[in-house]
């Protein structure tokens, strides 16, 4: 292989790795955009729009292996439905430690996920940690997309109410969430 061919191949691989990083950043940003600064899910129409955009980060036949985190799902429509049913009223996804390998129009990656979230049912703050194993496909029409995502080693740690609020309004949210439970006793 000539030096020019090797250089071209290396450049294409680097461009693919960067495109996959940007795709993952878009996926995480869309996941987080489903919530407002005052710890609420967006209104139903906007939530649905964001869930569909998040699902568009995947191929049409993508497979989601969520185990206890969403179960198994196949295809964009099933993913959009899951993303719309979020159990959170706030989330901040951080994907780090990417290990990305590109082979032509296919790639695989392993990521570390740190997700700070507030549960919608009781406003409990949790730190979700996991490793994801993913495959990607490239097409001229859509670029790089996630073809499969598997959640491994999922850990959820309750942070406790004393470590937050993140911003003004969390105590009011907790009061709204807990008051029906208090009156039921």
Structural account:
This protein is of the alpha+beta class. It has one domain (3-184): Nuclear Transport Factor 2, Chain: A, CATH 3.10.450. Helix content is 36%, strand content 39%. A 6-stranded mixed β-sheet has the order 2-1-6-5-4-3. Helix 2 packs across helix 3 (76-84).
Strand and helix map with partners:
Elements: H1 3-32, H2 44-55, E1 58-65, E2 72-74, H3 76-84, E3 88-103, E4 106-119, E5 125-139, E6 143-158, H4 170-184
Parallel strand pairs: 1-6
Antiparallel strand pairs: 1-2, 3-4, 4-5, 5-6
Gyration radius over CA: 19 Å
How far do the termini sit from each other? 76 Å
CATH domain class name: Alpha Beta
Number of strands: 6
Which segments are poorly predicted (pLDDT under 50) over 5 or more consecutive residues? 181-185
Query: β content, as a range?
Result: 35-45%
| Principal-axes shape call | elongated
What's the number of domains?
A: 1
Structural class: alpha+beta
CATH topology: Nuclear Transport Factor 2, Chain: A
Strand order of the largest sheet: 2-1-6-5-4-3
Oligomer state of the chains in this structure: single chain
Helix fraction, binned, reads: 25-40%
Summed up, the helix count is 4
Mean pLDDT: 89
CATH architect. name: Roll
Largest sheet: 6 strands, mixed
Helix and strand pattern: HHEEHEEEEH
Key terms:
185 residues; alpha+beta; Nuclear Transport Factor 2, Chain: A; six-stranded mixed beta sheet
């Amino acid at each position: 292989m000539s030096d020019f061919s090797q250089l071209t191949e290396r450049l294409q691989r680097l461009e693919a790795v960067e495109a996959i990083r940007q795709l993952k950043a878009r996926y995480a940003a869309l996941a987080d955009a489903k919530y407002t600064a005052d710890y609420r899910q967006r209104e139903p129409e906007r939530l649905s729009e964001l869930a569909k955009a998040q699902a568009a980060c995947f191929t049409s036949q993508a497979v989601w292996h969520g185990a206890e985190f969403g179960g198994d799902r196949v295809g964009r429509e099933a993913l959009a439905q899951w993303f719309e049913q979020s159990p959170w009223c706030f989330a901040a996804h951080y994907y780090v430690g990417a290990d990305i390998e590109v082979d032509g129009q296919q790639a695989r990656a392993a990521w570390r996920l740190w997700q700070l979230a507030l549960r919608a049912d009781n406003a409990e703050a949790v730190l979700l940690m996991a490793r994801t194993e993913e495959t990607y496909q490239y097409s001229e029409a859509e670029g790089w997309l996630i073809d499969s995502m598997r959640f491994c080693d999922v850990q959820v740690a309750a942070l406790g109410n004393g470590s937050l609020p993140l911003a003004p309004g969390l105590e009011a949210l907790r009061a709204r969430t807990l008051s029906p439970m208090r009156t039921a006793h």
